[in-house]
Amino acid sequence: MGYNLLEALNVRVIGSGDRYLLLAHGLGTDQSVWQRILPLFTPSYRIILYDLACAGSVDPDYFDFSRYTSLHSYVDDLLNILKALGVDRCAYVGHSVSAMIGILASIRRPQLFSKLILIGASPRFLNDEDYHGGFELGEIEKVFSAMESNYEAWVNGFAPLAVGADVPTAVREFSRTLFNMRPDISLFVSRTVFNSDLRGVLGLVRVPCCVIQTARDVSVPASVAEYLRTHLGGRTTVEMLRTEGHLPHLTAPALLAQVLRRALAR
Amino acid sequence: MPTSVTTARQFLTEEATRALDEAVAVARRRSHAQTTSLHAVSALLSLPSSTLRDALELCVGVSLDRLPSSKSVEDPPISNSLMAAIKRSQASQRRHPESYHLQQLHSSNNNNANANGCSQTQSILKVELRYFILSILDDPIVSRVFGEAGFRSCDIKLALVRPPVTQVSSRFSRAHCPPIFLCNLTDTVSGRVGYNLLFPGHEDGIDENCKRISEVMAKKSGKSPLLVGVCALEALRAFTESSTKGKSGILDGDLAGLMVMSIEKEVNELVIEGNEEKLGLKLKEVEATLEKCNESGGVRGVVVHFGDLKGLILDGVSGDFVSHLVLKLAGLMEAYRRRLWLMGAADSVEICRKFCDKFPDIEKDWDLQLLPITSSKSSFDGAYPKSSLMRSFVPFGGLFPTPSDLKGPLSGRNQSIPRCNLCNEKYEQEVDAIMKAGSTVSVADQYSENLPSWLRMAAVDTSKGEDVAKTNSGESMLSAKVLGLHKKWNDICQRLHRTPTFPKLDINASMSQVPTVEGPQFSTDLKQRSHGDLSVNGSLFPNQSPSRQIHMQKKFLPKSTASISCTSEGRNMNFHSGLHMDVPSLTQQTDKDMPWFHHPRQSLSSCSGRTHTPSSFVPPVTTDLKLGTIYASTCQESNTTKLLNHKEHLQHLSGSVSAEFDANSETTSYQFAQSSSCSGPTSGEQFDLGDYKSIRKVLAEKVGWQDDAVNSVSQAVSQLRHRYRSSRGINCKGDNWLTFLGPDRVGKKRIASALAEVLFGSQECLVSLDLSLQDKVDHPNSIFECEELNSYDVISRGKTVSDLIAEELRKKPHSVVLLENVDKADYGVQHSLDLAIRTGKFPDSRGREIGINNMVLITTSSITKGNINVICEKKGMKFPEERILGAKNWQMQILVVSASDDAAAGKSNYTGVRVTTVKEASTCTSANKRKLINAVESSEVEKTDTQEREHKVPRSCLDLNFPVEEADEDDTGSGQSKSELLSESSESWLEELLSQVYKKIYFKPFDFDGLANKIVKEMRLQCERRVGSGVALEIDEEVMVQMLAAAWFSDKKGALEDWVAKVLGRSFAEAGQKYNLTPQSVVKLVACEGGVVKEQAPGICLPAKINLN
């Protein structure tokens, strides 16, 4: 049965090396987003790639709306994949929603992860009394209705915004993967993500974390990285990337790879 | 970016292309800029073979009318969303290989069309019309229109897909099983006939959180869930509400028949008013219920929920009440194991931790299990159904009407019962019957494992929960039975009571979606439990070794880093030993390669600037060894220019260093880089450049010799300010903390007080405490005291240091707080600082907290990580900082002797300036007793053996007339050994603390030796001018130290030069008049040990007059 799961989520293990490195993509992308990072790590790591169930590259028929109502189901998937592969320890690199998933997974199975590297991570996207997540509830509702009424327009507006940096190829690539998602699924998942609030449980994380934050990210204000650093239970460092946007692996792969390499070595 | 029509055409089969062309034609007719899915639909409707209905045509027409028209284009290009739909249909067709073969034929015919910028090199999959339509229906603009027309896209899809469904399912069941996620284990798989896409309906079953809570409780270990998370309280409420409201789906399976009792109100009353009575009564009631539940089958157990944990650790709460309650509940837990569950919620882990700190055994006593809650279902509920579109989006969602559909729009969440009441009742009866038999099985199961839960947890975890399936087999049988029953009654109900409207297939649907239906849900239970076992266990306790586990059991999440601490300590040890070994070579390297390291005054102000080159590490610059010598005053000019030449390299270096800066790295090479510290701007954060510059100006005025540190401090502070000002300025913990590392205590202090002025308007707004003072002996008459650097041990009697700090903080709520030598902090202070940096509140020893968010906290430590700086600096330095810090404020005296008297020195012919180490026996008057121990000629100081002589000689020629301590005191090695003595634990504490501060700033050693050279030059000049050139000058080293210290402490630039010119020059002149100075004379400047300065020179802590003997 594990085999089927691996197939459904397009799990790939590539590279040589004795350590496992799991690269988990974020919302609106799929594993192809790591393409430019991959060659730099394949010589020294066995890299596990997979697609989230909500990714456009996964058969949307497999997306069970009654199951993926919270991030815990994605965590299940992740842990099942690692189990099916027989991985008992790996470094985890997660972007945006996958960062959240990684945090939850590491709470459940701390021994499984040697390190979490969280790119563009946020425990909570919505603002709160003394927390600045970057989004107001009203704003989000507007975004959602924009998604509903015209997905195309939304994607066209959102993609450059998210990519942030002026890198047309990155915008194109992100638009592509975003379009690949079935609109209903991306809306559903977005709701799930915005509904999640990990702030209270960050202290349960025991795995050392490295938070990678770009200088300007529409989805994640800089204060969030700091929030993560102070609240994550494990030893946590923050790396500021001197680039902009939510998708440094698309816009500045070399820079990111450098930081990744350092974070992994630590 | 719209796509051209021809490109889009390549992807389609002939039939579909015709549809597309038609769509383009529609767009053109209407003069629309792009061809959208809506046009496609419109076109499809007009096709003769259309499967769509006429009514739709009208709707689509209306919608198209609303689109803005533009200049007519020949072929309105394909909009992105339509193109995306084509891509999607391609993908979905690829997933159905039986049509794929067919398509390959197509594509081989059209291979030549591929050249047109298409990334796929092999073959293009031609999309069949059917898939094309399916994808178009996904497009929001289409489904919205359909929704308005009263259709659901999915209904239409169904109509389209119905024929292939049977084929597909048969294929799937054989070769290509749908992926098996954890939720469809074992028996549900068989229940899930064929195509799982048939049952994706997002019914609002039970709350995900409730499900997970039940999992924890239903596990064999039967933990009491303590929900943690921002939405935890909400989830708790939802759980209790829905479980008390009805038996609907939350407490079933093993948990069926549990009764939820809330003591929340009573606890609140106890906590706020101290009213114990009501709680006592309530607990009695609970106990009575528990007593009964053995006998009757009605209530099988009790869940006591105590609400928000925060209530129990409020500041004002009398600990007695709470601990009484804790004991009471623990007693109940002990007595009624497996029948009593506690339940509570906490906002955050920190609260749990606080609670557990208070009651270390609580975890065991209450049998608690932390359960992370990360989402609030209720908010989801609120938002979710609002979107009518969502439903229409859901593919095939309407294929099999969900139960709520049957009930019509009025049906709410709790009414989604597929069975009528009559059938339901019967069903429940039967289930009960089975349950009675079954429950014994599960209970036995539970007791079979008497291992302590902690050990079991470890076992489960290591075996990765493989045993779970095994042990659950009994239960799975049971649940299978119940599922069977469930199905049976559903079946009966449908046939008898609503036969015609209910499609047969719903049986399958409801079966795979057990959560929708009311009644026991064994199948989900089982699934969830099985993964719950391995997940929840793993969640809290990184199992390391059994002993560790046991330890944890006692402590339950001991302080923040419990689980890591032991490993990291080990690592630290390694790291340190490694470091010590590396130090000699490192320092050597420093000597040779980094001349600027010894010349902080010429620090690389040019290169420390704003270079943002995150280049790869450039090997250290190499300059001539000669340039690096400390006393080579003649070389200084050329040195500077050389340095400028190397500016480029240095910029690289600073770039790489700054890139490493936040890295907190542990390799020695990085350490090295950090300690040598060209601390350029370290992060890419924005800040106001003007602000930065003005701050830097003020700081640089005060501390001219720490350019790099000044730069980084100004940068950090301007960033800080920027954040406070900007709307994003959220006060993160640790944000307003800085750390100054390295030597130069005065520089640090001075910068702190300058910051107080910059930030809060006055130097008065500085709270300064030296945490090392408590274990220091008083140094009477030290220059430091004369500068009033600390008035702290006067008031400190009988108070803990943290109280003292708290008091000061309370006095000055807006201030810069300078905590010196934080590495020497005692345990109490360590604890307080820990909390302060985490929570933004500084607690005193009694737990009262003072907000520190309006302060800037600066901790200093003379050790940088690994002590490199200290050691480097000591090596080959004539006047190390420790020595200067010990400077005494003595009166000075000029002695004139003839060179022949001093024949012992053996340098009678020498005329120049010497800095001598003179030990005064008692007072200045007993000049004959003094002993010249060592003389060093300053103008030709050789670095090589100064040090040895200086440190060894005094000891070896120890005169019995001298107090022994004095010699020891001067021993500069003591500082090093002290820091070595620092316990491992406090070291790791420091590391932890420093990792949380906003920025670390490394200071360079003050260049005392350079200054000494300068002073000597200056004095010689004065001496020559006032008394003539033939006279030799001898300066007591004590005096030199005193002068250096005074210059270091002085606020005024050039104060020492002034003093030398005025006071010393005058004295020289007086001496020249008083004595007949011949070339044989030696003028000596010595300290009158024991003679305190009576009158102080303005602007500097040196005597205003110098005695002549």
Automatic annotation (TrEMBL), chain A:
Alphabetical list of Gene3D superfamilies matching this protein: alpha/beta hydrolase
Annotated InterPro entries: AB_hydrolase_1, AB_hydrolase_fold
UniProt cross-references to SUPFAM superfamilies, sorted A to Z: alpha/beta-Hydrolases
Signal peptide: none
Domain AB hydrolase-1: 21-258
Domain of life: Eukaryota
Pfam families named in the record: Abhydrolase_6
Protein family membership: Belongs to the AB hydrolase superfamily.
Protein's recorded name: AB hydrolase-1 domain-containing protein
Species of origin: Hibiscus sabdariffa
Automatic annotation (TrEMBL), chain B:
InterPro entries: AAA_lid_SMAX1, ATPase_AAA_core, Clp_N_dom_sf, Clp_R_N, NBD_SMAX1-like, P-loop_NTPase, SL_signaling_regulator
Domain Clp R per the UniProt entry, residue ranges: 8-168
UniProt feature coiled coil, ranges: none
Name of a matching Pfam family: NBD_SMAX1
Entry keywords, A to Z: Repeat, Transcription, Transcription regulation
Cross-referenced Gene3D superfamilies: Clp, N-terminal domain, P-loop containing nucleotide triphosphate hydrolases
Entry-linked SUPFAM superfamilies: Double Clp-N motif, P-loop containing nucleoside triphosphate hydrolases
Keyword Transcription in record: yes
Domain of life: Eukaryota
Keyword Repeat belongs to the record: yes
Family: Belongs to the ClpA/ClpB family.
Name of this chain's protein: Clp R domain-containing protein
Source organism per UniProt: Hibiscus sabdariffa (roselle)
